[in-house]
Amino acid sequence: MLSFLNIGLLLQASSKKVITREEWEKRLNSVKIRIEDMNELVMNFLVTEGYVEAAERFQLESGTESDIDLATITDRMAVKKAVQSGNVEDAIEKVNDLNPEILDTNPQLFFHLQQQRLIELIRDGKIEEALKFAQEELAPRGEENQCFLEELERTVALLAFEDVSNCPVGELLDISQRLKTASEVNAAILTSQSHEKDPKLPSLLKMLMGVQNQLDEKASYPRINDISTATLEDPSL
């Protein structure tokens, strides 16, 4: 025997409007989007994410101008690559060559770069050097900022474990930590160049998924479940 909850769900499902693929595609085709807007969206993504060669080629083929000097992308990507490779000292030098005010005016970013240097020393087994670096470079900043102190304590905790796989903060040694720091540096450089720090395309895709989730409550329609292919899947009846 159906429960009241199941009956309610069935009634809700039956009350949904069903939109066929033909009707949905007709509605989509009625929306006019300028090719120039699409090109600007692509260029924004290429420039922000640092695909300089692709951006240069796309500029030649589409005639779409970037709102940022493409020559500066190479320098920005050199910084990002240095952090991703664990060469944090080199990355700091490159940032200062680009614009010394970036680190001077962003203490959190500078701390995270120094924290990444400490992580790399621990990764390389340079324990004494790591302890000295933590004490001389990071501890004074931790005394001024409680958040920095907590992050420093988490990082130094790596030294207490011979097997980092059993360490509760072992994720600090994952490549994902390098990528996180590299993304933060990349965003800071973009901001210093008066450019958006995040590409517009991922935000629009998140908006798409959010709108679909809201629409699911009212209708059954051809849905995009895999944004990597953008394939419309027929509604379940």
TrEMBL record:
Alphabetical list of SMART domains matching this protein: CRA, CTLH, LisH
Pfam families referenced in this protein's UniProt entry, alphabetically: CTLH (PF10607), LisH (PF08513)
Stretches assigned to the CTLH domain: 72-129
Name of the molecule in the record: Glucose-induced degradation complex subunit, variant 3
Lineage: Eukaryota, Viridiplantae, Streptophyta, Embryophyta, Tracheophyta
